[in-house]
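Two entries, shown back to back:
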Amino acid sequence: MGTKLSIWKQGQFYPALGKKIIELPYDVNPGPSDALVKVKGYNVQLDADGNFIKWDYSEEELDAIHTYGIVRIVIDMYEKLFDNPISWSWQKSGNKSPLKVSIRNNDINARFLVDQQLIELDCYGKSDALIYNCRSVDLVAHETGHAILNSIFPEWQNGTSESRGIEEAFCDLTAMFMVISQYDLCEEVIRETNGDLNESSILSLFGVGYGPKDHTYLEIRNAINKRIYHAVDWSPYAYSQVLVGALYEILIHMYNDERSIYDKTDRLYQCGFIWMESIIRTFINCPKKEIKLEDFILHFLKNSPIPKDQIILIFKNRNLSFNKLND
């Protein structure tokens, strides 16, 4: 059968992109909900055609539909990339509870709470101009990434800052994968950058509109960065920016070097898929416990989508050594 839903293309800070209709290849229950995901506190009913696209839903109901849709797109994307069904960490011990997603609490948080089996997406700001975390595709995808990675590497969450930084990178990359895996969004990237991926776009920018409070429309992070590695106990987000920045440079190399595909959108879409697959294969083969950036890079070299010397140079320029390269 399948179920259609209405979602934001990128979120409330991209009004020009608006919304679109997606179709999931399975039935969805009222809520929306299914065996893996449930929007907490809502019981939105399907329309007469068995979809979630009628236009007289309330604003809150539309937020619930959108949030569920983004979480499911992320899950479906990773099930294809992993070639395995997703099951949450708590389900492995027999607890069949779905991942709950809470939206519209009056707070500033966007976080995954494994002990509560919950993604929390709050809203904040002035009552006449509230900012909703659930409306950001980036934030919903990022937090869903935490839940998915926790199902594979539960010990990373309590590891070193560097291990948690690699987890944060996975979650930011999840938001980037959401763009690169949708052809219409690849078209938007090319439009915004005029085909130069060194320019900021919906692909490189994370969490536009959710940045510093005194700069309302700034992003939280940008994959285009010059962050240099330091072997001190940084915040996880600093380690994350080193890795995401370097991996984005690799995508730029792939895109610029692939001259056999003339159409820029086609080129980005096809190179992006190869880039995404190589990153996912790397994560799948990472150690189950503590991991360092050097370990990740050595695994990535085994799945290299560009010449290895280029990859090594990109990471060396970010102050990463390769002591284990010849082990």
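entry 2 starts here
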Amino acid sequence: MQFFGLNRLGWLGAMFVLVLLAGCEVPPVGDGGNGGGNNGDDICSNGVTTNGFVDSNGICTNGVGDDDGDDFEPPEPGEDGRFRFTLRMEGLDDIEAMRVIVINDNVLYSRENAPFSDNRFSFNAVSEMNPDVFELDIDEGQQVTLIAIEAKGITSDIPVNDIRFPTPFNFEFVGWAGDFDDLPEDGVATLEMDGDKEVTVMFRAMPVIDVVKLDENNSQLTGGCYDIVIDAPPLLAFPTDLSIDGTREGFCRPRFAGQVKTGTTFTLTAEDSNGCDAVSGTCTEQFDRWEGDPSGCGSNRECMFQVDTATTITAIWRDTTQP
């Protein structure tokens, strides 16, 4: 078919020339275009994509361009589709070796079902200084579970003049701050990697418990004995770790000390054990009273108290054979 003496091919060529003459300026390939020159109704489609972005030659398409002439590129989720996760570990006291397990997977975990030993998903962050910072690059959309691991604490019979506590390795969890999404249980934080994230975890030293016993009027004796019952709050650690809960009967050493989790309850029950008659059970060294931080124990043989701060208590006996 011919129109005004032109066949179909010739007619299409003429129409293209008319479009160019009408004012749609096509920049030279490779110069990036003018960006803002086609924000109107003009159509430029010479060797470009059709999604409104800029092709590798920097040529505008479908009236789309940015205002400053720079090539427009769709946003990317960080380097290679990954975001930066930063974990900051802070000790509120002079502590070391704070610990958090970072689990990066498609699902979230609890302390009970977390794959602690699977290094495909699990990263063990143990501080070597205070504060300490760990950085990981994690894929966009991944779920991150942060699980704080507390020290077990310690109790021990030690020499009276041995200053062994506190140590920098008995620490307990305080809290989280930063870009977490949820706190599903104590010591656990969760988040989704939909951007760069930074989370701070805080620990503090466990409070000290120190129990000393003595005979008030006979320096050759050190008092009787006492039973110890320890009831500690749940330990935020690995599910298989055991707390220091338990009972110790007939503790007769001069000193009992340690570091325990805040809120741990002690029950001490004094018993006479020196100069005792095998038949009557009467002892010449008799318990007299408790002194120190716990209030209200006095001369009661049983003394129950909660350790929330450094706690010192002295168990006092008296040798009744002495004036």
